[in-house]
Amino acid sequence: MSESWKAKLQDRMPQEWSHEIDIFEGQMELRRQDRLDEKVFAETRLRRGVYGQRYDNGQRHDGIETRPLEFPSGELTKGPDTMWDAPGMQRIKVPYGGLSIAQMEALADLAEEYSDAILHVTTRQDFQLHYIHIDDTPDLMRRLAAVGLTTREACGNSVRNVTACPLAGVCRDQTFDVTPYSAALADFLLGHDDVQDFGRKFKVAFSGCEHHACALVNMHDLGFLARTRDVNGETQRGFTIYVGGGLGTVPHQAEVLEEFATVEEILPISQAVSRVFARHGEKRNRNRARVKFLVASVGIEEFRRLVREERKLLPHDEAWTDWIDDVPVEWERPLKAGMVLNGAERPEGFDDWFRTNVYHQRQPGYSVVTVNLPLGDITTWQMRQLADIARDYVSDNVRTTVEQNIVLRWVPDADLPALYRALKSVGLGDAGAGTIVDITACPGTDTCKLGIASSRGLAAELRQRLAVRNATMPDAVKDLKIKISGCFNSCGQHHVADIGFFGNSRRSGTHKVPHFQVVLGGQWDENAGSFGLAMTAVPAKSVPDVLDALTDRYVAERERGENFQSWVRRLGRKEVRAMFQQWTKLPAYEENPDLFLDWGDSRSYSIGDIGVGECAGEVVSLFSIEISKAESEHFDALLALDEGDYRQAEGRSYQAMLMAARALVRTQFLDVSLDADDIVSEFRTRFYDTELFFDRYAKGKFARYLFARHTRAPERNDQQEARRRIEEAQLFIEATHAAEARVNGVIVNPA
């Protein structure tokens, strides 16, 4: 166990987070010893944000050193592309995108020490670090926890990062600032018992206004749109709650769950939705395991009834409302007084940047500045420079965006020229934020196991070409949104772009050709108001020409005031396909070999590198996840015994029994608390008194180990007592496994 960072940061980490990281480190060691099932460990690490990434046929990438892990048999794990053989990806949650200077500097340190010195902003306002070795992840997590960041449930079948509009609190059109409400829900759902048994991931977003893109509530599993109403002459805050939205292979528009829910109800309603999803959602077929399919299957009326019934049955929780009294009138405070720009000298390039990257806040004298990050990437050096810039101009008022950028809030208008110079000097002063040049792209074939075509390669090429045309480009084209996904799963959000692309492939003779399906007519505004439709697939190398033809024709044929969506509908799919026909006929390889290469790759195109994606993980039972934590606690007890810390060894053994008992109880009763008396009482009532815990030989003997230790703590803490408790805990855990298998009809040791 790595003691240096753990010991150094112990007092700076939230206790619960620290304990969870210890458990994960114990689970890693159990997996090393082949004592934890690979499928269970995979879901466990995904719930810690540790994600396998793609490599070219299992080879090392860019000279990154690999550290193979040997099992007791001397063999590696199940293939050359596992987490143990090569570095992977670490995802880091950033609720509502809010960043402090200390967090920015910590992220830069971690990316430089453990990764490839690149920080990647995702379309969920997260950060991702690539080429991270799994052995480094516990210390990385501890260093993040020390600055208030977590990786918990950043991946896997869990509640992902809760996103919110990056303009929340400063938007001129907002109903009210949704920041404190998104922060409260993110904190409430993190690690909550009721979000541990999902069949797939679950995404939540908050929007402060209805008509802008904000946080795109219409495409989320659970979305909150700020509303107010008058009650006896007083303004009451609340939300319209949406449920069942999502992109992926089959996009679904969210439906209204509640027209108006008060702020006091958003946490319990979210908990009720989580329980309904966990209980009724698909578990076997991962392709239909999102909440959107459940809502579509039972209908919104029935889903609403289920949620309302569940809400009535929920045990009261003070956490639902105890945060409300602490909500500040203003979430943020500016570093400096607001000042008008007036006639300050404007450096070269400032005006173009000012038009696209500066948003005037509702507060006079202040603006939000968007730092445009090509492909969502920022180097560690740039991140440190940006932290220094933030320190000078805005303090901790920094956020990431779902368009893979970073915004600086509360910039005094008079400081804008100086800020532009500072950003320009570190390569962060590009104009074009929010325009056609500001392309969103998922990782694609660079690192994703599901990538079919190079979304990042295409995005880089289009960005370069569009930047050259920017000066002569009509405003109607400049305002278009382009979003690119490497496969059909819409991680690049291609469904809600004016012009979207997603990767696929076609064959010409014996050769594969990388292609992109063209998706037209999506709506980014109105919180992802509508989804575009796939038109036809074109070779990846033809996409720039296709884009030119499409935008040129739009400019030439659009009627006065006609937007792109309306023009596409008027043109019709048949005519669009006819326009693209010249690019869909594939030549023989010998006629145009360049067409058979993907962007940024000199090798002949192949989809042989595609693996099993880990975005959702596999469906692992709640019991398997919970009991693995008990086993990790028991393993830590063994380590404490080896180190001569007998008090800790005995205490951890007892905790392991409690955790195992709770894992079993939760197969029948989800609401058992973390209180030891409650756990033992429920275990006794449900499994001991009913004899469900009894086997043919030991009867209830192993359960009595727990009862005896719970009733009376040891009078001494010596080696003998600690060793005895460790052995009892091991037997109790094994008996818990057997009891769960019997209750669920699994044949154990049939001989």
Model description:
By secondary structure, the protein is of the alpha+beta class. The chain has 23 helices and 20 strands. It has five domains: 3-145, no CATH class; 170-326, 2-Layer Sandwich (Sulfite Reductase Hemoprotein, domain 1), CATH 3.30.413.10; 350-425, Alpha-Beta Plaits; 440-596, Sulfite Reductase Hemoprotein, domain 1; 622-743, Up-down Bundle (Four Helix Bundle (Hemerythrin (Met), subunit A)). The protein is 38% helix and 14% strand. It has a five-stranded antiparallel β-sheet. Helix 20 packs parallel to helix 23 (719-743). The chain is globular.
Concise summary:
With 751 residues, the protein is α+β, with helices and mostly antiparallel strands.
What is the third-level CATH name, the topology of the largest domain?
Answer: Sulfite Reductase Hemoprotein, domain 1
Helical/strand content category: alpha+beta
The biggest beta sheet reads:
5 strands, antiparallel
As residue ranges, the low-confidence spans are 56-81, 746-751
Determine Rg (CA atoms, Å): 27 Å
Query: What is the residue-mean pLDDT, rounded to a whole number?
Result: 88
